[in-house]
Amino acid sequence: MSVFARLRPRRLLPPIAVAVLVAVTLGVPASAAGPSTIVGAASGRCLDVVGGGRTAGTGINIYDCGGQANQAWTLTAAGELRVYDATMCLDVVGQDTSAPAAVQIYGCTGGANQRWQINTNGTIVGVQSGLCLDVTGGGTANSTTVGLWTCNGQANQRWTSSFGSADSQSPTPPGNARVSGLTCNSVTFAWNASTDNVAVAYYDIYHDGQLMTSVSGSTLSANLTVVPGATWGLYVNARDAAGNVSQASSTVTITPPQCQADTVPPSTPTQLTGSASGTTVTLRWTASSDNVGVRAYDIYRGGVKIGAVTGAPPVTTFTDSGLAASTTYQYQVAARDGQDNVSSRSASVAVSTGATCANPVCTVRQVATDTDVPWGLVTLPDGSVLYNRRDAHDIIQLNPATGAKTTVGTVPNVQSTDGEGGLMGLAISSSFASDRWLYIMHTSPTDNRIVRIKLENGRLTTAGEQVLLSGIRRNKYHNGGRLRFGPDGKLYASTGDAQNGAYAQDRAALEGKILRLNPDGSVPSDNPFGNYVWSYGHRNPQGLAFDSQGRLWEQEFGNSIMDETNLITKGGNYGWPACEGTSGTCGTAGYLAPARTYPTAEGSCSGITIVRDALYVACARGARMYRAVISGSSLTNVQTYFSGTYGRLRTVEPAPDGGLWLTTTTTGDKDSIPNNSNERVLHVTLGG
Questions:
Q1: CA–CA gap between residue 410 and residue 399 (Å, rounded)
Q2: Annotated catalytic sites, by residue?
Q3: pLDDT number for residue 165
């Protein structure tokens, strides 16, 4: 673990959040299984209660298998490992969540420190800690103690039993998702049962990729707490005892009514002032008042809304960037409450920009528009731009000087997911001018995959398509999808956890990872685990970029608390699902801390790029672009641009003139309907 990770304070998730996280990521059988011995892969010896003791607090070791009661374990529906005719539970001493942690037997309490996940790779993971059951020091001799340690894939953390870890078949998607009884703060969500080769153990309920709750496999409805006025897309996944997760149900969109009508608008903002620094204007004003509460300020430039600040209460300042030099602009501000009652606009203030740009971000120019969501984007050696359209499944060549667009072809075998899947990452290597290969990541009917197709004479030669890597599990959300060539000539790919956090910690799985490939799709000989995995413990990473030192930075969606920017280390474990950003059991030894976190309401960031060692981050829900200066292993001088000016932002890439390409993702990005968007491709000129 790095010094940075060790020094960074981390906050535990509240108990209810731990319970929900456990339910989603860690499957347990629908009924008790056992009794069974649990045999260490390295030693061939059995998990054993020391000396056959039956007293609470007796420790655990390995010992020759002899069929005694102190080696007969039962796995319950709650995920407990019980011994002595199911009267005592395998227990983490003191509910310790940091490695090393001791284990013992103790009276069964139902606590998270007594719940375990039996994984298909042979590991047994503590639900509360995310740590693996570990034979101390890799020992194989009789009486070697057993405890918990950071999961590392070694043989002293692998076990065999008869608890059904061989099941690899996922349940069918739940059917006929529907709602009833919608009120301002609750709704009943129901669905038809899934089927499974063994049994469905749980149903996991989401809105828009965020986990809400989980219920047992015998339950086909849930009463959910909702937010008045917030539009959500509800769906459900089925999960079996072995942790296999189904594809998602259909999405049901809801917009709860307000609990109490509010028709009173806020007071008008006053004392609006503005000042210019180069081509950036900073506005300030006096807060409005409201009978319930101001929730946003809308900023108008020349009578047109160009941005907003939100919060409870929102701040009373706004920065307008990317303006023309030596130009006078007129500004007004209006206040808005939670039910969209809007005040009258403030008095106007005129602000004149400087003659030259003295700011990191100078001017913005709209290059093109599109009716679909631009996702991957690259600049070709001739200066033209290629971008793919996520739901339309085709690739566009754009002349940035004229805005002229040409379709170069449709990528074969792409299938969207009624969520975030479809045509995603796009990359070219430094040898593109001679080999003409486009590298593409997309969702197919069965998986996520990485392919390459040649672009010759302005057309995709799809007949020569090569599938470089397939079998990356897909789902409605959490598909990752970014591609980036590194300075080492290798191709890096970000993959989501396919809505199954257990995959993220399984180093044999391709999901929840940063992968590293040779350009021909083979595994580089210096990868840390002998497979494609470069780093793991990721939830839904969608941003990759290299700095001037050749270091890889990554941007990752959190669930409901925080997003994170990570500096990626070869073989590093970034903690999901045990921790989200700095929340959860993130103090566990071996988990690497993020370089920066963002509240999800201000983030949901997707693409990143680095220009002159400044990191630029494009955010969807936050509808803004962050800029941070890379200083050592830290991100400093973080600034916010375009707050609401262009809406939700998806992709940011370097432009050949030292500026940025920036794309929007304002509508249609949570469904699979092609050409139902209204998006822009922008060019951002950067200052010194």
A1: 19
A2: 478
A3: 53
